[in-house]
Write a structure and sequence with these properties.
The protein is mainly alpha-helical and 210 residues long. It has one domain (23-206). Helix content is 77%, strand content 0%. It has helices at residues 7-19, 23-35, 37-60, 63-68, 70-93, 107-123, 126-135, 147-180, 186-206. Helix 3 (37-60) packs across helix 7 and helix 5 (70-93) runs antiparallel to helix 9.
Length: 210
């Protein structure tokens, strides 16, 4: 009805892409190492929420702007890179077991911070928008009468797989963090590791080409 074809192949492709390490993977690992399981899962859900927005943008054709306008691509790219570097610098300067801004805050507030960071990190990565725009049409019949519905169905299927994998990553990284934190001196080390990871992600995004 939606004009989707080879849905099984799409799912297989999506699984491979989801488990391939990328910016989202390392962002979740960094948040889990620095803030624990709750922060990691919140970041994973934030990234997934960002992917849902990218899905709607691709369905409505907004992602095409990033594909055709080098200025729009560069603006989003550098905004995302600056944000990641900002988070990384704050983590490097922190002296506690959580990221800066979480000290003394309630658990819910810290999780909301991680969720918001996940959303912004995903939305400010123009490569995600271009990825959705390039992948989805390959599995939608050219003559489909409901291309927007097909985009949404495929995009939400991809997001669902991504949620499962990202939550697994967050929990695994949090367990690793727990083992390290049995030694009090490791708290600051984990902050520094997370900070370096975020800065590296920012620099990598800044050098990405359209």
């Amino acid at each position: 009805m939606l004009g989707i074809h080879h849905y099984g192949w799409f799912l297989a492709t999506a699984i491979v892409l989801v488990i391939t390490p990328g910016q989202d993977t390392f962002f979740i690992l960094g948040r889990s190492l620095s803030g624990g399981r709750a922060a990691g899962i919140a970041a994973a859900l934030g990234i997934s929420a960002g992917s849902v927005i990218h899905t709607f943008a691709a369905a409505l054709g907004l992602s095409a702007l990033l594909a055709t306008s080098p200025y729009a691509f560069m603006a989003v790219k550098f905004a995302g890179a600056a944000y990641l570097i900002y988070i990384g610098v704050r983590a490097l300067l922190s002296r506690s077991s959580g990221l800066p801004g979480e000290q003394g805050a309630a658990g819910g507030a810290g999780q909301w911070t991680a969720f918001r960071q996940g959303v912004l990190s995903n939305l400010l990565n123009p490569k995600v928008a271009l990825f959705f725009l390039a992948l989805m049409p390959q599995f939608i019949t050219a003559g489909s009468s409901n291309k927007i519905g097909a985009f949404l169905a495929l995009g939400l299927s991809f997001v669902a797989l991504g949620v499962l994998w990202c939550v697994v990553l967050a929990i695994a990284a949090a367990r690793l963090r727990g083992a390290f934190l049995r030694r009090p001196s490791m708290a600051n080390v984990l902050n520094k590791v997370a900070g370096v990871m975020f800065i590296a992600l920012g620099l990598r995004l800044a050098t990405a080409r359209q």
